[in-house]
Backbone:
């Protein structure tokens, strides 16, 4: 405590406190607080777990169906590729047959089989004047 003696206050100072004096606390009305029960029932975790399980099962089912469809499509593509290869081989065989049938030696054999004979004298027709030229005259192409 301090060694300075306290100044006694006069009755006037006590009746009218100075502006520098601290205000005295006033008693204010406060409502009394009480604890009340939670009006909502606690939620169960079971519906959330069932929802998560259903989403996971659905996702796995979709992945299984997509994988099965992709496998079936891959099998079909493989079958179509094999068929395309067979058609390519058949086309190559037919091209060989056409080239062989169009060769001069084959044409000569087929013509002789039909009773045709090779022509001895070759003649040309000049279209400008309609005259017929023999192959020895050099007037052909």
Residues:
């Amino acid at each position: 405590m301090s060694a300075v003696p306290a100044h006694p206050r006069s009755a006037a100072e006590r009746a009218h406190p100075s502006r520098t004096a601290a205000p005295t606390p006033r008693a204010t009305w406060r409502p009394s607080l009480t604890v009340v029960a939670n009006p909502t029932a606690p939620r169960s975790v079971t519906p959330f777990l069932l929802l998560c399980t259903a989403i996971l099962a659905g996702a796995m089912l979709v992945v299984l169906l997509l994988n099965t469809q992709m496998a079936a499509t891959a099998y079909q593509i493989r079958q179509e590729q094999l068929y395309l290869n067979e058609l390519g081989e058949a086309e190559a065989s037919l091209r060989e047959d056409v080239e062989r049938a169009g060769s001069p030696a084959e044409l000569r054999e087929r013509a002789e089989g039909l009773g045709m004979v090779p022509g001895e004298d070759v003649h040309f027709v000049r279209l400008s004047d309609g005259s017929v030229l023999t192959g020895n005259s050099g007037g052909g192409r």
The CA atoms of residues 8 and 40 lie 63 Å apart. The first strand starts at residue 123 and ends at 125. The first helix runs from residue 11 to 15.
